[in-house]
Amino acid sequence: MADVFDLTIIGSGPGGYVAAIRAAQLGMKVDVVEKWATHGGTCLNIGCIPSKALLHASELFEEAGHGFKALGIDIPAPVLNLKQMMTHKTKTVAANVGGVDYLFKKNKVTAFQGIGTIAAPGKVHVTPQNGAMIEIETKNIVIASGSVSANLSGIEIDEKKVVTSTGALNLEKVPGKLLVIGAGVIGLELGSVWARLGSQVTVVEYLDRILPDMDSEVTWQFQRMLQKQGIEFKLSSKVSSVDKKDDGSLKVSVEPAKGGAAELLDADVVLVAIGRKPHTDGLGLDIVGVALDERGRVRVDDHYKTSVDGIYAIGDVIAGPMLAHKAEDEGIAVAEILSGQAGHVNYAAIPSVVYTNPEVASVGKTEDELKAEGIEYKIGKFPFSANGRAKAMLATQGFVKILADVETDRVLGAHIVGKNAGEMIHELVVLMEFSGAAEDLARSTHAHPTLSEAVREAALSLGDGAIHI
């Protein structure tokens, strides 16, 4: 092509498309290369967005079947229309994907469809499904190719009976028995969807706890809540094999993680949710000399620059939590750095949310981390059972937990289990961005009655004490 771009981005997921828009806003001539037929990457197409559509729909189904009566709403037992629920999911995805297309056009971002390969610094080859290869000349390249589901050796994925998150979002009927391998965010979210719709769900986790990156007290309490919802857990266990029988059923061999006698479990569907790995295959990184770390992630410096001049990387392909919003912030940062600004991401204040019911939200340090680092801290907690709005909503499960430095009162971390935890965590994110103290939060007026008052009460408990407990 005759044109030379200022920036070429490989991948149009949250990191890639946000980087493209921000760079265009800053006056750059930008193009994006996407191998899929639609933009938005895993998040919009087969991850965050469709899963939240099903989580919301299944939560309402559960509430209508079990929660309405106590509120004085008498209706016949709800009947699941799974086809329509999937249609809602599909429409949600289409609306979000269409939004990215609109934003590209609005910001004059050129989109190429095909597999992008870095042929040399400043040169990207695009191989479309049909037609001739396209060569792009560019001043800078950003790798934003995301991640793919990790798999267990010896277990064949067919996305029908043995599925990743992709297949679990497209099941044509509710499985009688669903076995989930992995008690991380993906496994618990999708497991809870199908549990609410009628599946008998068993979660097998290699470690001795669920959600290993979150605060251990929070995850212990959260596990008890999920067990009350009917989800069974087999911790410190591993799946050694999945055998498909002639009748379509599955026999799953589960044994202790440290070794021992195996037990056979029946399943109709097995969901492999052991995490994700960077997607770097086929990008030509070995050809141009882009260095990877021991886990296959692209090595970058503080400005997201790889080992090759003019080539940068963001999102799931580099170190750090594989979160869409982390990738978005990095996309903005790298665009600003390339335009001469001081792009920056505060990794100490990136929230993480599990969108189950109740939700779990976290930001900053956990108790486990503070203990390991030898930091003296104090704990402020407040249960939703003492919150007026939560009582009115029949949403009294869970609590707010805030960790602050003993000497300075600076908030070091916060953890919420409860209804709408994913929305409430953000006032703590903002507080931590400004290095705020618990007293700052305690002296901030919160509207009454709201669930967020529990956040203020937790902050108050770090001082002279909470008011309503």
Largest sheet: 7 strands, mixed
Which CATH C-level class of the largest domain is it? Alpha Beta
CATH superfamily of the largest domain: FAD/NAD(P)-binding domain
Class by SSE composition: alpha/beta
CATH topology of the largest domain: FAD/NAD(P)-binding domain
What is the count of structural domains?
A: 3
Query: Whole-number average pLDDT?
Result: 97
Seen as an oligomer or otherwise, the chain set is: single chain
Strand content: 15-25%
- The number of helical segments is 14
**Overall helicity:** 25-40%
First-last Cα distance: 68 Å
State the total count of DSSP E strands.
22
The CATH level-2 architecture of the largest domain is identified as 3-Layer(bba) Sandwich
SSE diagram, text form:
Blueprint: E1 4-10, H1 14-25, E2 30-34, H2 41-46, H3 48-66, H4 82-106, E3 110-113, E4 115-120, E5 123-127, E6 134-143, E7 147-149, E8 162-163, H5 165-168, E9 177-181, H6 185-196, E10 200-204, H7 216-228, E11 232-234, E12 237-244, E13 250-256, E14 263-267, E15 269-272, E16 276-278, H8 285-288, E17 311-313, H9 324-338, E18 352-354, E19 359-364, H10 367-373, E20 377-383, H11 388-392, E21 399-405, E22 411-418, H12 421-433, H13 438-442, H14 453-460
Parallel strand pairs: 1-2, 1-6, 2-3, 6-17, 8-15, 9-10, 9-15, 10-11
Antiparallel strand pairs: 4-5, 5-6, 7-16, 12-13, 13-14, 18-19, 19-22, 20-21, 21-22
Helix pairs in contact: 1-9, 3-4, 3-6
